[in-house]
Write a structure and sequence with these properties.
about 250 residues, binds S-adenosylmethionine, 9 strands, nine-stranded mixed β-sheet, alpha/beta, globular
């Protein structure tokens, strides 16, 4: 098992003992890095709500929600219709089994394409989102929708985490991200979190350019042994790359 931790004791206990027993698709490597960022935000006083679009049975949602600061809540959005009608029940019982008190989170059974940012803001009692994981339908249309859905309600120092970027099974989806960067030049790719496996694929971490300083150096120093030293070439800037087993091609 890869030796990686978020530095948040409750999240780390869950990651070590239970994460892979909750059915789901996100890697423990990515969950530890995201848990670290959620902890970092709490330390910096970046307060707000934690949101996941596409909770499935709660594997990643639980890791996020264990990082809630006092007074915050988590919101899990899913159609809850796949692979069967029992999915929301399994999500709720997994949350209960892993210590997420019922009053600390909301479960919203809805298709993300049928809600607006205004409705989302109301659901969050007009509190900003400080961390959101987008992991719903892997199509350009749904990802573009979800990015535009969350951006107006994002905390100015908030982080958007995108699942299954550069996944061999969804080669076109990445174009929705680059179109988003063109529409929203204030947003930057903070970090590429590389895959553990084809079923635990890479994630992108995105934030406003002027929030980069809060996270970039901290991520690098916390996870230096996972740093791919060539980083990611975004043409006008370089973004951090963290990978479970960093190495370079041997050419000499
Ligand atoms: C890949 S699974 C999520 C895995 C989970 N985040 C994890 O890390 O274990 C995708 C989920 O997104 C949900 N979903 C797909 N399209 C959706 C949409 N437009 N709105 C809400 N949920 C959606 C599906 O029902 C499914 O539960």
């Amino acid at each position: 098992m890869l030796d990686i931790a978020s530095g948040h004791p409750t999240i780390d206990l869950y990651l070590a003992r239970s994460y892979e027993r909750v059915r789901g698709m996100s890697s423990r490597f990515a969950a530890a890095i995201c848990g670290h960022l959620i902890r970092r935000q709490s330390e910096l006083g970046v307060g707000g709500e934690l949101v996941e679009i596409g909770t499935f049975e709660g594997r990643f949602f639980i890791a996020m929600a264990l990082g809630l600061a006092p007074g915050e809540t988590a919101l899990g959005i899913d159609r809850f219709d796949w692979p069967d009608a029992g999915i929301e029940g399994r999500f709720l019982s997994n949350c209960a089994a892993h210590g997420i008190a019922r009053e600390r989170f909301l479960s919203w059974k809805v298709d993300s394409r049928e809600i607006t940012s205004t409705k989302l803001g109301e659901k969050l009692h007009e509190r900003p989102i400080r961390f959101v994981h987008i992991d719903s339908h892997h199509s350009r249309e749904c990802l573009a929708n979800d990015l535009e859905l969350v951006t107006p309600v994002l905390h100015r120092d908030g982080i958007i985490c995108l699942d299954d970027m550069l996944h061999p099974g969804y080669p076109l989806v990445i174009s929705a991200v680059f179109e988003y960067f063109e529409r929203r030049p204030e947003m930057r790719l903070l970090c590429v979190v590389d895959r553990e496996d084809i079923v635990a694929a890479p994630k992108f971490l995105i934030c406003r350019g002027d929030a980069l300083a809060l996270y970039e150096h901290d991520l690098l120093s916390a996870f230096s042994r996972f740093h791919f030293s060539l980083n990611a070439d975004m043409e006008t800037y370089m973004a951090l790359v963290l990978t479970p087993r960093p190495r370079l091609a041997e050419v000499g």
